[in-house]
Amino acid sequence: MLLSDATAPRSLSLRPLTRDGDTLTVEAVAVDGDRRWRLAGPLLSLDEAAELGAWLAGLPGDLTLGADEWTTLASASSALSFAGRRVPGGVVELRVSVLGMTPVDGTAPDGAEPETGGAQSSAASLPRTTDVVLGLSLPAAAVERAAVALVSETAALRS
Q: What is the pTM of this model?
C-alpha cells in the first residue's frame, strides 16, 4: 500500500512481509522530501490490517464526520497510528505516525550528527531511531486504491 501526497514529495508505504499466526510483519517506509525512514516488525495483526483497509476505504465517503472533524485508528503495537478527515472536493487529509523508524540513508535523525569511527559503547552502536509524523493530502480515489492494495497484500499472506 502506498499513500502519496498529491502536492509534495511525501509518502508512506506499508507492505506486509510475512505472517506468524495472527501477526503480520510489516515494512513501513516514510519519505519526506529527501529524507527517508524505515521500520519493519510486527506492526499489525490480521484483524488490524483488515480494519485499516476498511477505515481507509470508508474515509472518503464518511458523511457522518462534521467539518474539520478527524477520526483516528491505532494499532495494538502503538508504533502505527492514523488520523484522517474528508475534505470537500474529493480530498482526504491523513496524519500518519510511525514510531521508532531508522533513517534509510544512515544519517542520524532530527539533524543530529552521525557517529564516526573510534570505539563505540554498546548504546552508541544501537541504531538511532526517530518518530515520524507525516501529513498527507490525497485524492479520495488514491486512498481507496491504497485500501484495496493493503487488503489484497494481506490476503495473499492468509493462505
A: 0.83
